[in-house]
Every structure is written in structure tokens, then in C-alpha cells.
Prior knowledge:
This protein is of the alpha+beta class. It contains 12 helices and 18 strands. It has helices at 63-72, 77-89, 113-121, 124-138, 197-201, 243-262, 274-291, 297-315, 352-374, 378-381, 392-405, 408-425; strands at residues 2-6, 9-13, 18-24, 47-49, 52-54, 93-101, 104-110, 140-148, 159-166, 171-176, 186-189, 204-208, 219-225, 268-273, 330-334, 337-341, 344-347, 432-435. The strands form 4 sheets. An 8-stranded mixed β-sheet has the order 4-5-10-11-12-13-8-9. The protein has a 5-stranded mixed β-sheet with strand order 1-2-3-14-17, with helices on both faces. Helix 2 packs across helix 4 (124-138) and helix 2 (77-89) runs parallel beside helix 9. The longest helix is centred in the C-terminal third of the chain and has 23 residues, at 352-374.
Amino acid sequence: MNIDRVGRDAIVHTDQMCYTFKVSENPRDFTNHRTNQETLDWVNRDYYVGDWRIHPYGDNNDLPKEIQKVIQNNSDAPGELKRKTNLLWGKGPKLYKEELVDNELVRTWVEDTEVQTWLDKWDYEEYLTRSSVDYQHVEGFFTKFFTNRGHARLGRKPHIAKLEHCQIDRTRKVSKKSNTSLKSTHALVTDFAFETMQDLMNLSIYQLFDVLNPFAARTTVHYSNMYSFCQDYYTVPDLYGALEWIRRSNASPLILKALSKNGINPSYHIESPQAFWDAKREALEKNCSERGIPYKDSMLQEYEADLLKGVSKVLSSEENTGKFWHTKKAFEVNGTNLIEHGWTIKKIEQNVLDYIKAQQLISDHASKKISSAIAVNPALGGTGTDTKVNSGGEQHYALQNYLLTQNDIPEMIVMKPLNMALKINFPDKKLKMGFYHISPKKLQDVTPSERPEAKI
């Protein structure tokens, strides 16, 4: 028996049969189910390390990792996010001055040897690349500011020495336990997996960067982000609402893989209550405690595999004709709702073509939801519509519209730490950093000599 897992769900296939398996709090409402680990109420879920109160990013403080896991297993999302990063990047970061010409705001791109020398000392392009990637995934990123305080006796002025990108999965906003306000004051950098005691001990605490007092500490941390409605500490990225669609898109290839590998349809779909597995985990933990051995998650997985193997034996082969599977249902009163807990086994009609088409429809619809959440026009994201290739005109106007309407705020957020540093270090130059873009031309406006040669 083989079990292909997708989170808490699974596809079970043996030599005789194949079925899908899901875990749900309430099987009657499984379609609209959202796990308790995906809410927006993070403010009241703070936890403590020493004298510090850590403000979690997500219910389990792992939202960036969860997004990474879901995105990287998808066939559409990584490419669309990379395309979006490329659209923001354009021809790369350049220095400019803003001027009003005939009552129109114009960027004048400039070269400055002094500023460029400072930028080249710490590889600003790598910093901006990493920051742009973080922003496109979670609409926020952390930056370390390193200062050189200078020496008044030597006539040296303090300045920002360099900026450094911080891994967003390892950086969180924190505040002192005694701080009763919702405003965080510091940032903590560590490996939040806390798999070993060493991870817990290797904590680095930094003050949050203050543009009005940039040299308050030798090293500070700044969080640059798109503000999310009614959120105090972190941004809720637009991708958050599409995570379930992305998971459904990820599951479809595994289902078709199992179908192709076994040459048969999944015969049954089994839903089990989460309460059953919670109770079993407690029983295993109690048993391990009585025996004086440590509990491991693999014990529950082994129990689940044995149980699914038993289900397979009952549901498959001609020898089991007349046998049946019996479970008990429990009911829980939650306010005005009556929640049903119990196993449900549903027979799937053996229609291979309809089943494959259903999976394709789910995958196609999920792709549209993903494209909508990432906010990339299908003509730019490469997804197209109904498998049709977008025309050059569609791509031209989509790109023109994107550059005019969707790059300004992302550029402002990504460039904010660097532009603050430029203003602090070179206040008289009035320079800013921005991404240089070339306005697209229609093909009929390009002379034959300017058109790219076709390569065979």
C-alpha cells in the first residue's frame, strides 16, 4: 500500500483499489472548511522568550514558510511571481532626481560617482533583488541598517555603512513584556523552528530603525511593507486568500498520478473527523508517558497507515463481499450550531473520463484564482485564456497598463530603506533610487532594422 500525502489529506492506493482521504473538523461542511491554523487573529497569540513578547506572523508564527511550501509545489504561482518581480525590476535600479517640467513630474536619471562608490561597497543590487522577491511573495521585508557612528575628534560624520536583507522567516517584531501598547520596539532574528536548545539561545535583538534618530544603535532593523487593513504588525499578502485554491491545484496532479499508476479510479472518498485524531494523539502520548518513552509524530502516522490499510482490506477485493465498515458519530453543541463528528465513506462513480475532466476543471479554475490573487494579467503571466496564446496587442496594452498603474507603490516600498539611507548620507544631493523602465513600443512603430532577428 502506498500513501501520497498532501498536508493532512492523502491518496491511498493498493494493487486492488485507490481512494482519497481527508481530515475535517466537520465533514458536513468540508467544502467551506478553513483550519484553525489559518485565521487573521494574530494579535492575541503572542508568546514569550525571556523578557520579550514576540508578535507572531500567522497563527503558528510560520506564515512565510507556509506560503513558501504551498507556492513552490505549484506549477503556476512561482513563474507568475518571478514574472512580477521582473516587471518591477525593469532595467534595474538607477539614481534619479524628480523635477517639475511644464507642471509635469519628470524623473531625470543621473550618475553620481560618490553615491555609486558607496552603493558598490555592499552589493546593493543583491539586496534589492532579495527584497523584491520577499515583497512579491508576502508584500513586506526586513532590512538591517549598519551604521558607522564616526568620531567627532577626527571630523568624521556618522553615516549608514550598508543595508542587509533579513530572512523574513527568521525575523519578527518584538517588544518588552512591560510594554502594554500595540507598537513594537525591537526585532528578533533567529531560527523559529526551535528544534534544538541552541536555536533558542541564538537570539539576536535589534532596535527598530528610527528615521528621526538613525544612529541610536550600531545595528537596527526596519520592516518595509504594504499596510494591511486592521493589522497591527505584519502584512497579510493577497496570496493568503488563494492558499486553499493553490492547495487544490497542487493536489490534482497527485490524484492523476495515482490514477495513472494504478490504472483504476479512486473507488471511495473517506472523510475523518479531526477530533478522532486528536483523541488518538492524546492516547498515544499518555501511553508513551506511562512507558517512559518520548512521543513522536511518526507513531500517529504509523497508526494512521495501519488504519488505512484495514480500510483498504474491507473495501477491496471480491472476498470481502458482504462485509461493511462501522463507525459511531458524536455530536457537539457549539453555541447555536450542532457539529457532527464521524467517519464518512462515499463511493465514487467509476467514470474515468468524467473524473479526469473534473480534476482538470478544478486545476483550471484554481489557476485563474491564483492569477487573480497574484494580480498579473494573463497576457503577462503566460497563463492565457482557454489555452489561447495572447496576441501581441494584448500583451502590449497589458504591459503598458501594468507599468502605469501597478509599479509605483511596490517600488516605493522596496526602495524605502535605501532612499532613507541616501537622504541620511547625502542630504544635499536630493537623490532617490528607482527602477528604470522602458515604455513598450508597438511592433508597427519599430523600424525593421530595430526589430529583433528571428532565431532558428
